[in-house]
Amino acid sequence: MNPSSVASESAMDDDRAHLNPNVSRFPVEVCENIIDMLYSVAIVDQVEDSRALHRCALVCRAWRVRSQRNLFYSVVLHDLPALQKFSAVLDNAPHLCDYVHELTLVGRTLHTTTSPLSLLPIILRGKLPNLQEVTINRVCEDEDWYPSASDSESAKSLQYLPLHPRFAVYFSAFTTVSRLHIVDITFGHFNDLARMIDSLPALRTLHCAGVRCVTLGPLPFNMKPRADEIHAPARPFAPNLQELRLAYLDIHCVRRLVSACGPRLRELSVTVPFFHDAEMVLPGDPTTESTVGVDLSLCSTLDRFDIWLDPELVTEGQSLDKLKAMLDSWDSELPLQYVQLQPYYEQDFTRQGFADLLGTVGRVLEELFQDSSAPPSGYGEVGEQGGRWRIWVELYDWEVWRGWWWTHVQKCFPTFAKSNGLTMTFNPPPYDLYQWKDSDVMPTTPTTTT
Questions:
Q1: Is residue 392 within 8 Å of 341, Cβ to Cβ?
Q2: pLDDT tens digits, one per residue of 211-231
Q3: Which of 47-51, 147-151, 302-306 has the lowest mean pLDDT?
Q4: Same domain for 343 and 298?
Q5: CB of 339 within 8 A of CB of 305?
Q6: Total domains present in the chain
Q7: Based on the domain organization, do 348 and 248 belong to the same domain?
Q8: What does pTM read for this prediction?
Q9: Which InterPro entries is this protein grouped with (predicted)?
Q10: Which of 3, 57, 374, 443 is spaced 20 to 30 Å from 210 by Cα?
């Protein structure tokens, strides 16, 4: 939802938008299908889609209901005035409350004295019975896709997200939220991040990208290992969390979240090499936490592990050893486990550069495969113990490159390819982030798809 137009939603909701028979000769169902296409998971497109939907809702009465449902299904708010106007719209048109399933706070005001986040759960308390997803996305100064700063964004800038001391208590009122996305946000303490996560009782999916903590601080009580049942917390940390996606989060924070949520995780995603935040204040006793990699031994229910590969993996000396140690610690009794590999993002690689990186990672995985599984049988099938792992390479590129990629992927994982343990998913690039540095180049030789 465009904050500049929220105030006009009340007018849009009455009968002043009349049907004009000359507006379109197409059946209204065709128009509704087109309106339904105005939805995107990318925040850049969400901003544009909300503006387009608002205009559609003002065209005529026949378009109004469908446009409103889409407009309010995924609401985008940019600052505190937009939040206040949105709340007023819901008060004037209570039926719109049921439409809201996704809510995004995006902009440059989150790290200011007028940050809308602390007031969000207070202003909207009890108004969003069907809210399922919350996204908190700070726009950095160097991002030119977002509009330039307005007068409302002239408030004093802060080093980190200002949260009310009782924010977690208010945030817990969103009992239906199952997905939380936090992007480019800095917290004063790790405990602030942990309390936000733990406050949502129905949370199943957590995605943190570019999240920082100024101070790590001591391990929160309900994240500590529960070896002594007498002192165990009554409720485990984020008890319903099953999918954890962590990109460019300091390794200490990653380790804490994986350790606390591991016994319940079904899917885990991390970037490699691991990120070390040089500016984060660590605990006074460095021996309290391991300094090497991530331990997956507690992830007893994990059946899918996504690894986002960064170009720095080539130059970061110890990362491959840490990657091997992390995968080697994954000892699950599940009959099948998927390791998914993909670039983070394609725009940072040439095609050949990523193919070479896959070959390097492939040697690590092939060595682990040889160490942990029986050799393939004469019919090319995996041995009794070797059927546990499957390698899944996800790529975005144009169809003409499919054969080239499949040839290289098989070369990177020859043992998995022979044992039917290798899969490649291939889709066209949906956004610029998914286009390679050499995206305009064509394959030099004809290739065939296997």
A1: yes
A2: 999 999 998 888 877 654 455
A3: 147-151
A4: no
A5: yes
A6: 2
A7: no
A8: 0.83
A9: LRR_dom_sf
A10: 3
